[in-house]
Amino acid sequence: MVFVVDLYRNTKIKEEIESKKIEKVTMDKFYQAFTDGVIMATNFSNLLEAEGYGTVFLGSILNNSQKIIELLNLPKFTFPIVAIGYGYSDGSETKKKPKMDKDLRVFTDSYKILPSYLEAFKEYDEIFYKYYEENNRDYLETFTNKAAKSIDMGLIERDEMLKVIRSQGFDLKV
Ligand SMILES: Cc1cc2nc3c(=O)[nH]c(=O)nc-3n(C[C@H](O)[C@H](O)[C@H](O)COP(=O)(O)O)c2cc1C
């Protein structure tokens, strides 16, 4: 299931009412529709899980947005943001990955900057490593190592994403 920013329909309605062509839609509208799509995807995932399916969010559809646009015949003023793959489990048990302490990610009143992140995540690093040691040695790594690597891990096609968003008719104003 692919979730799509869809400003095409409303743009067409306005074009029919005013009998004139719309060339651009603002990024504000894009972000509104983006958030709508993400909320919808989350609800859809919760619904499926409640019905006994397993789900996985697929940000990988952004690896080549243009290809997805062509594949799904997405018109101007639309953009695919996230997908959900779903199905029944093969029955094998998967253990839930332990989450980091809430204090490390939920702050009250203002953002909490920590003096040392390696120090603060020392305990979670051990828990995280142990989880992968016991469950999936392919991903064996500490949380902090994984986090550091993820910062500049990317694909050239993702660098092109804003260009694709612009060519879909959204006004980046940059
Ligand atoms: C926005 C988003 C995009 C994701 N994209 C992918 C993806 O492309 N491929 C994939 O296998 N999993 C993807 N995932 C799933 C994550 O890799 C992970 O399995 C899931 O978020 C559960 O995380 P947890 O094990 O840390 O709780 C994505 C998750 C999120 C939230």
Automatic annotation (TrEMBL):
Keywords: Flavoprotein, FMN, Oxidoreductase. One of its GO terms (molecular function) is oxidoreductase activity. InterPro entries: Flavin_OxRdtase_Frp (IPR016446), Nitroreductase (IPR029479), Nitroreductase-like (IPR000415). Gene3D superfamilies: NADH Oxidase. Residues 33-88 form the Nitroreductase domain. It comes from the Bacteria. Belongs to the flavin oxidoreductase frp family. This is Nitroreductase family protein. The lineage of its organism: Bacteria, Bacillati, Bacillota, Tissierellia, Tissierellales.
